[in-house]
């Protein structure tokens, strides 16, 4: 931390938090998002390119669509940025229809994927901060609205996954992202709370510093989780205690407890519960094998 | 009626229709609404407090959310009233997580519940009147819009129950509130029509009198229905005739006919058809037994 | 074409494209739309007239509702036109509850139906053009938004059929209009693209001429398809080639290929795939037989 202090952390954070996201970071966001779409069941790309393209757009721009819906603006507002849509459409085309599956193999190659995943988290953090700021602009004391808008901006398509799946003819009513929150969704919620506290001047840090720190946390955690094919969450220990205190939940959450390392290790090892992305990874491997 | 005239009914109605709803009446509304949520299947409160909290908010503020959606404003607009949200959240916490289930046992105790149910109907009537008035403000001659907005303000979460259930992982596509209207939903529709007629100056009563009379009708009926664990409806007789005349439906609706008392009795005895709330009551009883 | 030139095509197109749609064309639109609703499974008209009426309104005004949602305005905005709603409600009442099913028999009589279908396509084309124009007004360079809004204005209730069915207690998650596009939905998409290109001055025709030509194409095709009880599409040949080039789909789409006539014939004969409307026709026939 002293080294960072010498390097003038404040200026660095300021510069970082003002950096443009288009096209490099946004491109990484589109690639990783549509990669996850490819892992999903329902082979609609060839059967109905229109449905597949719409799903891809929801994966890339779902957070804007949801935030616009929640704030009562035009849901297709973001589609006025033709260059963003064209870039995302190009990524969709390359991932699904590139000859020899070449593009997919490149971006799904682990070292490349880890870089892209890290870049995606940079965009996610900025979206949360922008969402909270936007809501603050519309409702000066609407703290709950700020959390909600920051949350949907961070979680994006995950929060409407039931309806996104429906587009592909898949219907799984027994679960949804709110019943079984994945790490990015949970982190978006906590991030939205943090940014709202900052906007309310209840956190003793500047917004740019918070963006910097939260980006670092998100990128590191997501890269480690992706590298380990894990779907654990660094929050398990804290959550288990808070839920025990507040809601009287049984401490530790059963089997998962055995895997949770003691306090200093921030990342929980592979959870035994297979989640959506887990299955996606499995599918990916099978698909890769078929392709080889 | 003469006695009421002596008591200066007009002034009384005026005062009553201007009375503030927060916090007493709103509190009753939140308690009764979240009580019905607790009766619903899907034990999500402990599994996912976030999903449960969101459901509770939909139960308490669904009418505002729906009316905002229908009128094209921001659906989370009402969440700017932090004190209302905090009060509803406190009720949610107490009903689901209070030690020894104490709060639940208190408010579900029949005499207390009857008072709360009566207070809830006061809020419902005011919401219908406010919805119609709001729509009248936006569309001066949009009589149908007025009825729609008043209707959704009165019915609230019931009209989006399919999607609210989905949040809890429950999916019952074969039915919905429009196919099997419960008494409050029906009454909201008729109330919305009455208030729209009043707004169009087609009813020879002032709005405050109409609010007063409709509140009296709703509170009395709902209290009697709750006390008798009944899901009948005082409209069955009239509806059966109107449907017969307009739509050629078979008169009387089969078995229900036997239970319907002749004209003067306004409340139909227990209907043989088990509805959502019926099941809820059953579940409640089983739950109480388990808790004891 | 020379004859049309002599007849002053430009003026004719101008007059045609400015012609009022209410009440004749709109009436035809309502009749044909509610006719398709009657073919749908789920006998709710007698069980719940309210749900049935709402479905009928979605069939008639779904395109306005969807376009309003997509552009962030009030979804019930169109319901301010009381005369349109009353006319559509009258059609709904006559089709579902007319004594002896007389009205239904008249409008479902093939020659009458063909005229109504042609008139409906006139309205559809105008809606697409109006949708694109409206979106152009809101987003001057939002070409994608224009296509989206034109598309939903043309397709109407088809795009929300999953949710419209849910109102009637029917749930078919395995399919939707985007996975299996019917001819009108596809044509609306292509029409929306054409009108957007025209709005962007990339098509060397005036808007009124485009409206005229597209109406002619739609009306002719839909009348032929209806007369032949067919659900093929004149686009199959082109689509099959484009999909082969762009998405590497197998050429021709299997069995359908045998039925496709060589280039000059614009209408593909009866497709072996039974679609929604196909089933509707079947149901209609059975119903007519029962009625006789």
Automatic annotation (TrEMBL), chains A, B, C:
> Which Pfam family name is an example for this entry?
TRIC
Broad class of where this protein is predominantly found = nucleus
Recorded topology in the membrane? Multi-pass membrane protein
List the keywords (alphabetical).
Ion channel, Ion transport, Membrane, Nucleus, Potassium, Potassium channel, Potassium transport, Sarcoplasmic reticulum, Transmembrane, Transmembrane helix, Transport
Which residue ranges are recorded for the region named Disordered? 257-292
Q: Which InterPro entries is this protein grouped with?
A: TRIC_channel
Its annotated function is as follows: Intracellular monovalent cation channel required for maintenance of rapid intracellular calcium release. Acts as a potassium counter-ion channel that functions in synchronization with calcium release from intracellular stores. Opened by a change of voltage within the sarcoplasmic reticulum lumen.
User: In which family does this protein belong, per the annotation?
Assistant: Belongs to the TMEM38 family.
**Protein name listed in UniProt:** Trimeric intracellular cation channel type A
Gene name of the encoded protein: TMEM38A
């Amino acid at each position: 931390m002293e080294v960072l202090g010498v390097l003038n952390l404040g200026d660095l954070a300021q510069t970082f938090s003002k950096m443009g996201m288009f096209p490099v970071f946004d491109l990484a966001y589109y690639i990783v998002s549509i990669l996850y779409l490819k892992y999903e069941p329902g082979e609609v790309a060839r059967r109905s390119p229109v449905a597949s393209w719409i799903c891809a757009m929801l994966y890339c721009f779902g957070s804007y669509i949801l935030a616009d819906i929640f704030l009562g603006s035009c849901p297709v507002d973001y589609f006025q940025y033709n260059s963003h849509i064209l870039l995302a459409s190009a990524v969709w085309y390359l991932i699904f229809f590139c000859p020899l599956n070449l593009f997919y193999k490149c971006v799904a190659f682990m070292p490349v994927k880890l870089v892209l995943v890290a870049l995606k988290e940079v965009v996610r953090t900025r979206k949360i901060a922008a969402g909270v700021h936007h809501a603050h602009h519309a409702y000066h004391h609407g703290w709950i609205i700020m959390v909600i808008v920051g949350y949907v901006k961070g979680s994006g398509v995950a929060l409407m996954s039931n309806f996104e799946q429906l587009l592909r003819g898949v219907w799984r009513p027994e679960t949804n992202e709110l019943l079984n929150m994945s790490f990015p969704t949970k982190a978006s919620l906590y991030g939205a709370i943090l940014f709202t506290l900052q906007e309310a001047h209840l956190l003793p840090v500047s917004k740019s510093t918070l963006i910097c720190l939260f980006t670092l946390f998100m990128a590191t955690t997501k890269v480690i989780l992706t590298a380990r094919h894990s779907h654990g969450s660094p929050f398990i220990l804290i959550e288990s205690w808070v839920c025990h205190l507040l809601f009287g939940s049984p401490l530790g959450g059963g089997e998962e407890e055995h895997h949770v390392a003691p306090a200093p290790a921030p990342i929980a090892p592979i959870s035994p519960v297979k989640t959506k992305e887990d299955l996606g990874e499995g599918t990916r491997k099978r698909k890769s094998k078929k392709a080889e």
